[in-house]
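Progress report, Aim 2. The chain analyzed during this reporting quarter is listed below.
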Amino acid sequence: MSRKEEYLSLIKRLRVSDEAAAKELVQLLYPLVIRIVRKHLPRREQEEDLAQEVFLKVFTKIGQYQANMPFEHWVSRVAINTCIDHLRKQRNRPEYRWSDFSEEQQAMLENSVDTSAIPAERSPEEIKELLYRLLTALKPHERLIVQLLYIDEKTVMDICDLTGWKSSKVKVVAFRARRKLTALAKKIEE
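Predicted structure tokens for the chain:
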């Protein structure tokens, strides 16, 4: 049985409230969902809770799924939108001051603004933490586009498929997010 046929069979069983089908579906889709959740949360504090929320939405909206698209794409779209909603609810975008950063982080920021290169002696963890601190200043949908476009290296068309947005919206959001990050980096430097 192909993966598509397996999903369709599970969906049919799920629509008649078969708990075993729900468990099988969770087992099949968990790696995909948790990967998406981990990519879109700034910190890994609530990833299991958010993954459960994604599955809850999948189960409650299963009637909206149409077999004309791959089921995994539909679940990915639900997961991404759930992450955006979660980030939107948090609305915790603190303003960072230069003094909030350690000396090493200040040096990385100075080098990244001046030369667009981060010193090699910095650990990947330090660089990732600094990047996530800057990304939290963006709106959730801007952060998503920056993540997908520049970190995950997805194409504009891939992002359109994942989000359901038009390419013009993706490009405009990316442009505005880049402008905000540049302004934030300059503001922090002052």
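Confidence is low (pLDDT under 50) at residues 114-119. Residues 80 and 88 are 12 Å apart (CA to CA). These observations will guide the mutagenesis work planned for the next reporting period.
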